[in-house]
Structures are given as C-alpha cells and as structure tokens.
From TrEMBL:
Coiled coil: none annotated. Gene3D superfamilies: CoaB-like, Flavin prenyltransferase-like. Keywords: Decarboxylase, Flavoprotein, FMN, Ligase, Lyase, Magnesium, Metal-binding, Multifunctional enzyme. Residues 192-402 are annotated as: Phosphopantothenate--cysteine ligase. This is Coenzyme A biosynthesis bifunctional protein CoaBC. GO terms for cellular component: phosphopantothenoylcysteine decarboxylase complex. Residues 187-399 form the DNA/pantothenate metabolism flavoprotein C-terminal domain. Its cofactor is FMN; Mg(2+). It catalyses: (R)-4'-phosphopantothenate + L-cysteine + CTP = N-[(R)-4-phosphopantothenoyl]-L-cysteine + CMP + diphosphate + H(+); N-[(R)-4-phosphopantothenoyl]-L-cysteine + H(+) = (R)-4'-phosphopantetheine + CO2.
Amino acid sequence: MDKPKVVLGVSGGIAAYKACELLRRLTESGHDVRVVPTESALHFVGEATWSALSGHPAVTQVWESVHEVPHVRIGQEADLVVVAPATADILAKAAHGLADDLLTNTLLTARCPVVFAPAMHTEMWENAATQENVATLRRRGAVVIEPAVGRLTGVDTGKGRFPEPGEIFELCRRVLARGAEELPADLVGRHVVVSAGGTREPLDPVRFLGNRSSGKQGYALARTAVARGARVTLVAANSELPDPVGVDVVHVGTALQLREAVVKAAADADAVVMAAAVADFRPARYAEGKIKKQDGREPEPVELVRNPDVLAELSAERARPGQVVVGFAAETDDVLSNGRAKLARKRCDLLVVNEVGERKTFGSEENEAVVLASDGTETPVPHGPKEALADTVWDLVRERLA
C-alpha cells in the first residue's frame, strides 16, 4: 500500500524546531512527509535538517524543479497538509488566499484536510484580525488548533504556546483516519463539553472514595471532536493523561467541583457528553486529621450522603434550546436492561452503555458499547479502539444537532 502523503508546512516562528519532533513521529509511523518551509522558517531550522529527516528536498519557492510544477502537484497529491507552527502571518495569507511562496500555493491547491497549529505571542493570537482569520479558516473546513497556555519566547507566559508535538501527531492521525471524504469538518462552529476521568471524594487528608476510571474514553471523545472541527472544553477529574491538543481543559477533583465546571461550560455548549465516572456518594464528614487505627476497637462506620446527579440536572435544565446531552452507564450485570432504565430516568438524548469490571474497559485502549437513544434506537459499537466509539457518539450527536 502507498504511504499516506503528508505535507508539513513550517512557517517562521521560534517553535519551528519543535516541528522536527512532529516530522519524526510522522515518518516513523509510516507516512511519506514532504516539508515545505517558508523562507523565514529557514532562519530557525535549516534546509539540510528538513531534507535529511524527511528524505525529500525542502524548498520554499515555486521556481525550483519547475518541470514538476510543485506549486500545484504537492497540494494535489497530499492526503493531509499540516502547518506547524502556523504564525499569524501564514494564517492571514491562508485566510485571504495569498500565494507568494510554495507553502501558500500548496494551501490553495490542496483538496485534502488541512490542519494549522498556531504559535505566537498572546497579544497576536487574541488580536481581532487573527481571530477573524481563524474563524474564516474554520468556516471553510480547516482544523485550527487552539494554542497551548504556557511559557512563550523570553519571559512571557500566556496562550499562544506551540502544542506538544505528540498531541499534534495524534490529532493528525485522527484527521487522516477520517479521510478527505468527510470534509468539511462536521463539527465546525460547535462548542462541545466533555467530562472525563473519575471523581474522588476525600475522607481524610490521605484517603478518598474513588473509582477505576482512567479518563481515556473522555479524552478520546475530546480529541476526536477537535479533529472534526469543534471547540472543546474538557472537564477532567483526576486523570494523569496529557492535556489533548487544542482543548480547553478544566481540572477538577470532586463531584461537586465537576458539577460546577460542567454547568458553567455548558452555558453556551451545543452538546455535553458526560463520560466521567462521577461518584454517587461522598463522606458526610471530612476528618481534618488522618483517621487512625485503634487497637481492640472496630472503626466507626463511614456515613455517606448523595452527590448531585449532574447528568439528570443537565438533561432537565438545558442551557440552550437544542442542546444534546449524552450520558455514560458503566454496568456490571443486566447491562442493557439497566441501561434502558437509566436512560428513562436521566432523560438524556443518548446513553452509552458498556460492561465494566476490573479487567474490562477501565484503563484499556479499547471499548465496546451500545448507544441507546431517547427515540428507542440502539447502536451497537463492536470491540475496538475508544476513538471508534468516540466517532460513533459524535456521528449520533451531529444527527441530532442537524
């Protein structure tokens, strides 16, 4: 089989050196990568580096190898174009259709998915001109990743940092998996909220009531939504996974904290997917000091109180008309019958029901489930990667949003 053809566009920002790691991941995973830098990019990383790592000459202008018509051919043959880093300048040129070098010509001729990974100072990212250019590109079907928050050039800190290359690679892999026939990205212009992980209810300074959820399914939902063009808020409870690229992540610990964060984020959301394992109960009293074992005496019983039912609350009090609410049901027996009862009780639009256990689902890279809908339909999802289940969920959400 032919290797997927990827064009890696590199524009002139200090983060250009990090694109070498993205290039390495793409080539080592079996992609045929052609690097197309701008003239400015070569001030940061030289042509020899790009050529050596990719196995192809890295040229900036349309005047080289003219007999091959590179300004048309490279874009026509690509399965994916990713611009990383994408400066404010390249975003402006792409949004306005300028074509003054090989990279901008390639962007105009590409008929495949296009991903931009911006990196710039916070003021440049937040400037109205940049935001309008980003909105234009997204409206046309391009995936423009939200930059990360962190240390920038010099002593500055803020939004505009180049996302981690490994996370950009995972996003590119998801975009490639969907293929060009799915263009344009079907969640462009949508804001979705996803909860992930498992809440922990503290008993004393060293102990808590928790569960086995790793957060992997929720993170797969967030990554997949970004690849489909959505603006994503991820409310993550006690997950050790790295923040997905292009996602606004809110870290929480307890069920009450999760409820507050989800309700706030859901105020302007088109869809809310509650994939987190939220504790049903919490200790009625928190011990300020460690509860110690006392010889010859049985421990005092732990009194529990109910936590708010976040899924039922979201379903009953939709923050906006047409908002789609999705729940998850982790069951150990009578999976479908319990799931149907929960769907009726929670009154959500979709309920993803799966069987869980010590060696099932939790912490695994795979999942299998049945998605129950309020209209009575049932969609089985066979055992496979959690990303496949995520895509099915977003397919069903998209139908209801339409």
